[in-house]
Design a protein that fits this description.
- It is built from 19 helices and 15 strands.
- It has 411 residues and is α/β, with parallel strands linked by helices.
- The chain has a six-stranded mixed beta sheet, sandwiched between helices. It has a five-stranded mixed beta sheet with strand order 9-15-14-11-12.
- It is elongated.
- The chain starts with a helix and ends with a strand.
Amino acid sequence: MLPNVFDTLTERGFIAQTADAEATRELLQKKKVTFYIGFDPTASSLHCGSLVPIMAMAHLQRAGHIPLGLVGGGTAMVGDPSGKTEMRQMLSIDAIRDNGVGILAQLQRYLTLDGVAGLSANNADWLLELKYIEFLRDIGRYFRVNEMVRAEAYRARLEREEGLSFIEFNYQLLQAFDYLQLFEKHQCVLQMGGDDQWSNILAGVDLIRRKHAKQAHCITFPLLTTARGEKMGKTAKGAIWLDVGRTSPYEFYQYWINTDDRDVRRFLALFTFLPMEEIEKLGVATGAGLNASKEILAFEATRLCHGEVAANEARAAARAAFGGGGDLSAMPSTEIASARLADGISVLDLFVECGLTASKGEARRLVQQGGAYVNDVVVGDDAHKVAASDLKEGAILLRAGKKKYHRVLSA
């Protein structure tokens, strides 16, 4: 008998829907199963919003099951209409392939995909070679258009003026065919995904039932928003990526440190492997104790994504920034030519250049509201210039508001 991972996922808040909860729970406890989640390589990196499915996969693998990370090299050629109000931009085959390599590497930070304990596949291997007439005859005959258009993903698009392209309408058939292929090739009997994938995943379950008279299983995850109503993994500056080149470990750490108080317990349960007994205590802390809980969340999430060394460096830099002194080397930094600093740089221009504000107008408002700092001294005038005289041990520390820091280094 295996650990009861279905109840673990339920307790931690991973499960939104299942087709047959009791049968899936019994299956996962009775024997080792192969399960999969698909990741379409529409970008070169996954972001924090992808961590719910990744962490769920990791829990199942830790309980003895076999994860299969499916890169959607074929479906990315079409574009999933689920949750989208317009057709996705088409990518080249080379871009999709390169994106898939990067995404698989990110999955391997959390999962063992060595061909034994865990598997990986790319649906381009079977989708790009499909013969259209055979596909319509062998697979298309199991689908009913009147049932498909009732799915929320399709209905929402059909109600818009531009409608739904025929290429996107095929997406449900392709995803269902993926499940059938993995069922036949790898005895995969569980597909998981976001709740916006519910109709597509059910289509795969139904296709396996119709074609092989076998039961397949499915689990969907809630589509997370923060307590502030923001999409998970999104900030005013954009997405929080898992790629170190797009979001530094320090910025990644700061995202979790800035978690809304109301989300701390929920995020600890979803994005760490800490025992629930500990999470319940951390989640009800107040004051300084709640800040300590956020630091634990930030450290654990960063450690899983970027490793122990990077997490320690990010934590040390954050503590140094808020406590004064210490090692700030992990903090995001920008090198400025010494000649420019000698002449002096407008504080508004510098805040925009360092990414602390999106525009000079936003920087001006920040100064007027008393939220712009140079070396922890509030900037009182939007005509202020930052100069070489502000260098302290070769660096200038900028701050926007209470929590956004950036270092300027003289080059």
